[in-house]
Write the structure tokens for this entry.
Amino acid sequence: MPAILIAMILILVIAAIVVVYVAYPHRGKDLPGAPWLSDAMSRGVDALPTVDPVVADAGRVPAGETAVDRPEHRDVPATH
């Protein structure tokens, strides 16, 4: 029982950190009353690796199209 309680408290703390980050530093604003925490969160996020949005979108299939509809997936004989 204590392990479940500790796990739930840890989950709530992590969720609160995510909500605070999305509400303030992610939008470029300082936390009211704790600008040092905004700076720390921003530095931490800048230190983590991220996925380049252009590279991430390169493999996306446009809306209304399936991956099978793409020319590279068709079983059409090549014409030379």
Remarks:
- The two ends are 70 Å apart (CA to CA).
- DSSP finds three helices and no strands in the chain.
